[in-house]
Amino acid sequence: MEDLRADIAIVGGGIGGCAAAMAAAAAGRRVALVEETGWLGGQLTSQAVPPDEHPWIERFGCTARYRRFRELVRSHYRAHYPLLPAARTDPALNPGLGGVSRLCCEPRAALAAIEQMLAYPQARGDLRVLLRHRALGAECDGDRVRAVTLRDLESGEERRLAAAWFLDATETGDLLPMTGTEYVVGAEARAETGEPHAANTADPRNVQAMTWCFAMSHEPGAEHLIEPPRDYAFWRDHVPGLRPEWSGRLLDWAHPSPVTLEARRRVLLPEEIDEPFGSLWTYRRIVCSAHYPPGAMPFETSLVNWPQNDYMLRSIVDAAPEEVERALEESRQLSLSLLYWMQTEAPRPDGGAGYPGLFPRPDITGAPLGLARAPYIRESRRIRAAFTVTENHVGVEARGAAGHKGPVSFEDSVGVGCYRIDLHPSTAGDNYIDISSYPFQIPLGALVPVRVANLLPACKNLGVTHITNGCYRLHPVEWNIGEAAGALAAFCMGERTDAATVRATSALRERFRELLRRQGVELEWPGLHAV
């Protein structure tokens, strides 16, 4: 078995893992970044999810590196795409002009920006990227992790990666059980967290739905029917068994409004409704023909991450391998069934049925049938942390009931984020939970495991609950979590200490926070606004 060594080993090359690698390498550390898919970037790339961001993202509320990423995406379009002059000179160019984000871009554009940042000269450390590698297990000595075993998914060879620090940036917190790190999965009981919207009883199998996103375009008057998916008959008639109940069949233009749970009927195409962004098509559109001369971009492209392809049947976290593979295949089948239903049976406003001109875009996603290279995972295992963020710290309703206005201010803040507490339907039958939250901070204590000394969360696996995961799981927040974790590991190496000591020692904590400030990490909000 080949032996590899690094100062900091980052397992998981999604948003948080890449941001952690940038911060750690910039501090001069030897970094190994391990990613299972062939693309770095996670949600932004291999999972094909345009960034979910807050309303002030163009001005404040993210790290300087995340803002640089956004600038590089726009620069990529200006350098390589035949944009019209108005689009080329627009400083706030939204490539897809999608409604969900101010930066609806193609996965490959996000990938190009991330790869450019990882190659940037300021990354003075030695950064080694191991694509198509999966962690199989770990070696531990008491409260310390010594090494992880990796498998090269191309050759089948195994490699041992030893390091001083380990960051878990996997989408489901895979290193936590491998290293014996204490963690939580699923929903906590209200008696444990005190959260108004927590479940009455704890349920480790109660996690948010995952989604296998896909990209599609539309050619009116053409016919591009895919083969009928194997499970189409099941998904065509499937009615989710949720509490409160769903609005009817899953494959339908009607679905519950996430906030009110009242049935809401949608349309597919923008020309079928008077509202500019009222269609599902424009919701996550990533290619907009209005940015290009006639004929230069004949087909718009939209990414399908909709209520209709949220997969709710079973969780893949802490499940047996055969159960995981079954769930992943069912999720793929659901998304393909949604596409086939839209092509053949979906009712149109003109009284007809089907949009046979829809066709998948594997060139956009880099995977067959336009499916993303990996599923979009909303909820991970979460560390048992020195401090856990609950709804009572950030929820508008919960804070108001306790007589407070605004969120809790954390003196150990290592970053900021903002999003509604947005929980998709769950694998235990809960319908949407979508409630208002305040712009919040990321406390250092949420990055510190209760016991293990040299492992840090760098993704969605920090010290939050099933409820607050709903607002700490979005793109710029995950980036900030990863960047703070990478900087923290490098700082601890330099100070010859651990994360718990940094948090507990005011001089060390403030020195670390000042380091983050110098690197462009915002630690507090300029004002408070509920979202």
Describe this protein's structure.
There is one protein chain. The chain has 531 residues and is an alpha+beta fold. The chain is built from 16 helices and 21 strands. Strands 1, 2, 3, 4, 5, 6 and 21 form a seven-stranded mixed beta sheet that branches. It has a four-stranded antiparallel beta sheet with strand order 12-13-9-15. Strand 1, helix 1 and strand 2 form a beta-alpha-beta unit. The longest helix has 24 residues, at 321-344. The mean pLDDT is 96.
Short description:
The protein has helices at residues 15-26, 64-80, 85-88, 107-118, 175-179, 190-193, 232-237, 280-283, 321-344, 362-365, 391-394, 396-401, 469-472, 475-495, 499-504, 506-518; strands at 2-11, 31-35, 127-131, 133-141, 144-152, 158-168, 183-184, 210-211, 214-218, 254-256, 263-265, 285-287, 301-304, 310-311, 358-360, 382-383, 413-417, 421-423, 433-435, 440-443, 455-457. The protein is of the alpha+beta class and 531 residues long. The relative contact order is 0.18.
